[in-house]
Write a structure and sequence with these properties.
Length: about 290
């Protein structure tokens, strides 16, 4: 394997995993039925991994794995329903040790305020659902297990930070600021996991996959205009899945934790994403929310 090889924006998931043998490994991927999660499942399976594929329903997950023709275990996990997430945790715990979790599923830019149990839906789905899923599975990670959180460059839109006093989203709701807040939470969650993994060989990192035309844009009213505007720097789905696959399985990243990657390289975040106290405050709030629901 050529460890010195440089990867970047043009690299595909197949390229960054070339030569890596994942046989005997088990990888959990949320949102396995669409976009980047589907491509990630395809490529990790191509390298020999068994895929635990999560989607809103078992049927969606099973259809995706069947369409890909891969060896996998389909599991229902509706991230906005903690009952469903907890059921998924119970099922996954029975499957065996996990070499990694790719928290990939997400929703973006809901035009109107929507709430789940009184919490803003993007925060709840993108962060809370994954918080309960991942924390419920931490002791199922292998000694070198890796957690990869799908964040976004859009975390820069979190102009008011995490807004822990506005988890309802009712204070001046803005579709992109609230999406950005949820993606900031994804980075902070990876930081908190890193603190909890101290002294072990487990790691947690966050990634920005790039800009890729997928179903993620479905709630954006001027979706076509947005993609037209972003065209010069858009990636294909094959390229878009590269950074998460890179962070998940490259051997040279063993021991690297608490970082934020874009184009297969460590990238800059907003200062709030580096704030350990904020990360702990988010963890505490998330535990409190999970305990109440
Ligand atoms: N595409 C981009 O340009 C871009 C840029 C930056 C970051 N990202 C991040 O990359 C990740 C993957 O996005 P994508 O582009 O692949 O989007 P996508 O094609 O829309 O896929 C998103 C996946 O998340 C699932 N999902 C949504 N809500 C869910 C819920 N409540 N419970 C369980 N699963 C749910 C979707 O399931 P259904 O199909 O059933 O809805 C789908 O499988 C997201 O976290 C996104 O924020 C993407």
């Amino acid at each position: 394997m050529d460890n010195a090889k440089e990867f970047g924006a043009q690299s595909t998931a197949e390229e960054v995993t070339a030569g890596i043998d994942l046989s005997g490994q088990t990888w959990l991927i949320t949102g396995c039925n669409s976009g980047l999660g589907y491509e990630t499942a395809r490529v990790l399976a191509l390298r020999g991994a068994r895929i635990v594929g999560l989607a809103r329903t078992r049927e969606k997950a099973a259809d995706a794995l069947a369409k890909l023709g891969i060896d996998g275990v389909p599991v229902a996990c509706e991230l906005s329903d903690l009952g469903s997430v907890r059921q998924a945790v119970r099922e996954v715990r029975e499957i065996g040790p996990l070499d990694g979790i790719i928290a990939n599923a997400g929703i973006m830019a809901l035009p109107q305020l929507e709430q789940v149990h009184g919490y803003e839906r993007q925060f709840f789905t993108n962060h809370m659902g994954h918080f309960v899923l991942v924390t419920g599975l931490l002791d199922r990670l292998t000694a070198t297990g890796r957690v990869v959180m799908l964040s976004s460059g859009a975390h820069h839109f979190a102009s008011r930070g995490l807004e822990l006093d506005n988890l309802t989203g009712e204070d001046d709701y803005d579709a992109w600021r609230m999406y950005g807040r949820s993606k900031l939470a994804n980075i902070l969650f990876a930081r908190s996991l890193t603190a909890r993994f101290a002294g072990t060989s487990r790691t947690a990192n966050a990634v920005h996959p790039g800009v890729i035309e997928t179903n993620l844009g479905r709630h954006v009213p001027d979706r076509e205009a947005m993609y037209e505007r972003l065209k010069p720097r858009m990636k294909t789905v094959e390229q878009g899945a590269a950074t998460q696959c890179y962070v998940a399985v490259r051997p040279e990243l063993a021991g690297t934790s608490g970082q934020y990657y874009s184009d297969c390289k460590v990238a800059k975040t907003i200062p709030a994403a580096q704030d350990r106290i904020l990360a702990e405050a988010l963890w505490e709030s998330s535990e409190a929310i999970a305990a109440e629901l």
